[in-house]
Amino acid sequence: MSEYFQHVLIGLFAVLPVANPLTSIPLLISLGGDLPPAERNRQIFKASLYVALIMLVSFYGGNLMMQVFGISIPGLRIAGGLIVTHIGFAMLFPTNVPNETSMQHNLLSDEGKITSGFRDLSFVPLALPCTAGPGTIALIVSSASTLKSTYGIIPLSIHLAVITVTFLTALIVWVALRSSGSIMKFLGESGIDAISRVVGFLLVGMGVQFAINGGVELMSTFQ
């Protein structure tokens, strides 16, 4: 049992700094400021579930999927960086005044809208790439590869620890995003617009850095 708790602590200390659920709060504030509280809470719950699903799929099937589609870790980082950069530019330079009609088409296709008429932020960008992004996926995939090469057949304690870390991470994401409601009331419309542009700038920087890291890793493979 002590080994199980040790694996859980190691997993949390490894995943949380990379996933950083707190970064999702300003993104939800800026993009979901016009959502009714009930709809926003529903999407927060869905985003938490998506984070858990992405983490589990990355651990148990990430290596296989990347091999089947011929995707490398550097390629994953570069692709994630491009997505984050695109979202950041759209937030930094909005083409229209954000209202309910225009925001429904912002960053999302018609397939991404839900039937109630509100845009769905739960998967993109709250879960992917903001929380369970390329850095988190790359960390989980590489960790799974290391464990398989070390143990051959992964022990049951590690499987239980993976499930526990996934659940705790999703719970932390849910708690962090639920706190955004009180922040929205405090900031108001002008404050949310200002935060949207600041977060957009930061996302552009994060996306470029993701791409740079992927490019450096890619170049190192040719040396």
TrEMBL record:
Give the matching NCBIfam families: NAAT family transporter, PRK10995.1
Any Pfam family from its record, for instance, is MarC
Name a GO CC annotation attached to this entry.
plasma membrane
Which top-level group of life is the source organism from?
A: Bacteria
**Keyword match Membrane:** yes
- Its transmembrane ranges are 48-66, 78-97, 153-177, 198-216
**Name used for this protein in its record:** UPF0056 membrane protein
Membrane topology listed for this record = Multi-pass membrane protein
What is its subcellular localisation?
Cell inner membrane; Cell membrane
* Family statement: Belongs to the UPF0056 (MarC) family.
Q: Give UniProt keywords alphabetically.
A: Cell inner membrane, Cell membrane, Membrane, Transmembrane, Transmembrane helix
Which residue stretches, if any, does this entry annotate as coiled coil? none
